[in-house]
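Structure in, sequence out. Go:
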């Protein structure tokens, strides 16, 4: 996850308009997105720990190295509270029957010029061969375009190479 996005989530500026009704779910035949909560801790932890190599490719070698179940619970609590406060939105990606966590989607405010949100996502390592992550990204892009107030959400690491993303000017607020 982007530390700048996470720290900016604390901004006093509203991320979404007060009248905007935040979508509760996105459902497809393969998966469901819903708010990530502390109740997901065991299944989320399993998805994270069994996907270490893939997560290192996305966010570097530091995370989730050494992550404990308790630390994951704290992290999920933070994401849940941020969602409830409408400061950022973390969705768990679950199988349609909710028996497994398949990944996560994070929607953060951004300071980057030309963008109004940063979106990060990952799919469980065991699902990569089935192109779940690609399907997830496509579905989330369509969902954001149809159901969210963003005009130009960025997908760093997916549509924009990380090196290019780091060079984009940050706006002062």
């Amino acid at each position: 996850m982007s530390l700048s996005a996470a720290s900016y989530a604390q901004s006093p500026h509203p991320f979404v308009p007060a009248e905007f009704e935040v979508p509760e779910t996105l459902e497809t035949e393969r998966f469901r997105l819903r708010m990530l909560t502390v109740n997901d801790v065991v299944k989320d932890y399993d998805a994270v720990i069994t996907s270490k190599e893939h997560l290192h490719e996305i966010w570097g070698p530091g995370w989730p190295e050494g992550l404990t179940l308790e630390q994951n619970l704290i992290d999920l609590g933070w994401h849940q509270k941020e969602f409830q406060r409408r400061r950022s939105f973390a969705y768990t990606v679950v199988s349609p029957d909710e028996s497994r966590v398949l990944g996560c989607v994070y929607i953060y405010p951004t300071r980057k010029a030309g963008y109004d949100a940063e979106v990060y996502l990952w799919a469980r390592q065991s699902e990569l061969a089935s192109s779940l992550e690609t399907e997830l990204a496509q579905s989330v892009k369509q969902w954001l375009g149809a159901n969210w107030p963003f005009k130009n959400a960025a997908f760093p690491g997916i549509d924009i190479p990380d090196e290019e993303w780091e060079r984009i000017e940050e706006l002062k607020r």
